[in-house]
Write a structure and sequence with these properties.
Elements lengths: L10 H12 L5 H18 L7 H22 L14 H23 L7 H8 L4 H24 L4 H9 L1 H14 L5 H14 L7 H15 L5 H32 L12 H12 L7 H12 L3 H9 L10 H10 L14 H9 L16 H9 L5 H21 L3 H11 L10 H21 L1 H9 L1
Helix pairs in contact: 1-2, 2-3, 2-4, 3-4, 4-14, 4-18, 6-7, 6-8, 7-20, 8-10, 8-19, 11-12, 11-13, 14-17, 15-20, 18-19
Length: 465
């Protein structure tokens, strides 16, 4: 059953010790089951000789559920004391964590029988590609990004299409990053391009800079066969750098976004990249006033996403009945009603839906913010607990089927691995609204099928010549 999974080996002893110690924390059960999810999901989702996309995707969702447990232990506080809507926070926590266990199981039921990839064969095939053409293609995708963003705003009916096209840039990034590290090429150009990309990603409305760190870590783990102490130190340094960047981002974000949007209550950028970078520099030089612990608290408040679930549990079904599948039906209907064909289709207002099912008066789109319930919360609103676990198990199975199709049906083995890289951005957000999750997933998969059938063969021939 686990023949294609990674071996935990000596880590089993370490995990056992950590789990035993977790029972002596101030939040023992919450900590125990939070830690247990890591080896559980690793054993079920981390497949040998493949990028650990599925594991990291679920781990990122886990972080949005569990990180405050560890922070509460650090502060020696009861877990519920760290939340605004604390009354039902324990239910929200366990419902969310159990949901992740169930989704993981659903994925595993499908991927457990996918034949293993031979890494030596992968390396041999990868060597047949032309590095100069890989670099040229990747730089081209970078240059096309602002054009794609322009069209996504110019044609709202096709916005999801253009966003998914942009996501697929990560498939080319797979070739770009993997080739340099697999064959020990001079990485100066790689570092220059990556540094420039991270810097310019800071000029956008959202914190997309973290995506480069996440994908780079995943691909490095995939490529490296053995690890030295220097590698572990580099991992630690990279994670610490990302963590601190996110703390600073949370501190400057409100004023910076207001500047980017020109003071408008919309998620747009109205200034040049040079102006944005100058403003960001000015704001970050003021972070001397930021207390580090306050920064950590702000970051955890943003990352953690079970507070709204707690508010929903307090409101549904006591003030509003369960919807018995209506939210799922609405999400599925949106897939078969693309806005380009149905221009009068109502826009998704996440905050309005959150207000309806929590009874809390959140600031909405008019103030430039969007607060979603999160897809697991919406499953609770539809079916309650434990009924919500059935559609979530099926969702895990769907994720597994999509992953299996990409691995096995792509033009070749290399492209299969390349296309699962952007797949992580379809499964990594606990906070994503159900209708957006289903639409994003379907849009990505449809575009993948089109590219795989009509484009990739020509692209592959170009990269090999």
């Amino acid at each position: 059953m686990f023949k294609n999974s990674i071996k935990l080996g000596a880590f089993k002893v370490v995990i056992g010790i950590i789990l035993a110690l977790s029972l002596f924390t101030i939040n023992p059960l919450a900590t125990f089951f939070s830690i247990l999810f890591i080896p559980y999901s690793a054993k079920l989702l981390w497949r040998k000789d493949e990028p650990p996309i599925l594991f990291f995707g679920l781990l990122m969702q886990w972080s949005q559920v569990c990180l405050k447990v560890f922070y509460a232990n650090y502060q020696y506080k009861n877990f519920s004391d760290l939340f605004i809507y604390y009354q039902n926070i324990n239910q929200a926590y366990y419902y969310s964590l159990i949901s992740l266990y169930v989704i993981t199981l659903g994925i595993f039921l499908i991927v457990k029988n996918i034949p293993m990839i031979n890494f030596d064969s992968f390396q041999s095939t990868m060597k047949s590609y032309n590095l100069k053409k890989i670099v040229t293609l990747y730089v081209t995708t970078i240059c096309l990004t602002p054009i794609i963003l322009y069209f996504s705003h110019a044609f709202p009916g096709l916005q999801q299409f253009f966003i998914k096209i942009q996501d697929l840039k990560w498939a080319i990034f797979f070739f770009f990053f993997t080739y340099y590290f697999l064959f020990n090429q001079n990485r100066k150009l790689l570092y220059i391009i990556l540094t420039a990309e991270v810097i310019f990603s800071l000029t956008g409305y959202f914190s997309s800079f973290k995506d480069f760190f996440i994908v780079a870590i995943i691909l490095f783990i995939f490529i490296k066969r053995t690890y030295t102490y220097l590698n572990y130190a580099a991992f630690g340094l990279l994670i610490a750098l990302l963590f601190n960047l996110m703390i600073v981002w949370q501190y400057v974000k409100p004023e910076y976004r207001n500047y980017l949007s020109g003071g408008e209550s919309r998620q747009i950028v109205t200034v040049s990249k040079a102006e944005a970078l100058k403003k960001l520099y000015d704001l970050t030089t003021k972070t001397d006033n930021l207390k580090y612990e306050d920064g950590v608290t702000n970051l955890l408040d943003r990352v953690s996403y079970i507070d709204i679930f707690s508010a929903s549990i307090a409101y549904v079904p006591s003030n509003r009945p369960h919807e018995h599948g209506r939210l799922w039906i609405d999400a599925l209907k949106r897939i078969v009603m693309p806005r380009i064909l149905f221009p009068k289709k109502t826009s998704i207002d996440d905050t309005e839906k959150t207000i309806i099912y929590t009874g809390v008066g959140f600031a909405g789109a008019n103030s430039g913010t969007s607060i979603s319930l999160g897809y697991i919360t919406e499953n609770y609103i539809d079916f309650g607990f434990p009924g919500m676990l059935i559609p979530l198990l099926l969702w895990g199975i769907i994720i597994g089927l999509a992953y299996k199709y990409i691995i096995q049906k792509s033009y070749n083995q290399i492209w299969g691995l390349a296309f699962v890289v952007p797949f992580i951005f379809q499964i990594n957000l606990f906070e994503m609204a159900l209708d957006k999750l289903i639409g994003s997933f379907a849009g990505f998969f449809i575009i993948y099928i089109f590219l795989n059938k009509f484009i990739i063969k020509r692209l592959d021939t170009y990269l090999r010549n």
